[in-house]
Amino acid sequence: MSKSLITQDLKARVSSVLNRDTKQFGKKFMFDGNDETCWNSDEGSPQWVKLDFPTAVCISSICVQFQGGFVGKVCTLEGQLTGTEEFQLLTECYPEDSNALQKFAVDAFKTVQRVKITFKESTDFFGRVTIYKLDILGDWSSC
Q1: DSSP state of 14
Q2: Which of 17, 36, 49, 96 is the most exposed place for a label (fewest CB within 10 A)?
Q3: Is 23 helix (H, G, I), strand (E, B) or coil?
Q4: Which residues contact 9 (CB under 8 A, 6 or more apart)?
Q5: Computed from CA positions of residues 39, 44, 46, 51, in that sequence, does the dihedral angle turn out positive or negative?
Q6: pTM, whole model, 2 decimals?
Q7: What is the pLDDT of residues 35-60, one digit of tens each?
Q8: For residue 99, what is the enclosing H or E element?
């Protein structure tokens, strides 16, 4: 059974933060469970989120809650396989322009230790992306 792979040991990086204001719009707010806080990117496409897990994981799906109007229209999930340098495409998804929590299955189960979610385009004219919740579901083991 899949469970959340987001822990305190997770290391996250993002492409940008709106006005470099990490106290108000930083990456940590995607994982804090508070519906009032969010990560807000600065303008420009693409935007991305990189996650480093403390151990190898098997990802089954990703859950994302955007702010409507600031949604990543074309998203790719890439994984860095254990012992390799290159990221490989795990899945591509097309979120709806909505405030609702959206879930996307990962078709290619692979054991990874790092993932990169790239938002190639945004529904926002300036390319900004706003995420209230990001969760990665799977197992703490090899696939």
Answers
A1: E
A2: 36
A3: helix
A4: 53, 54
A5: negative
A6: 0.94
A7: 999 999 999 999 999 999 999 999 99
A8: none
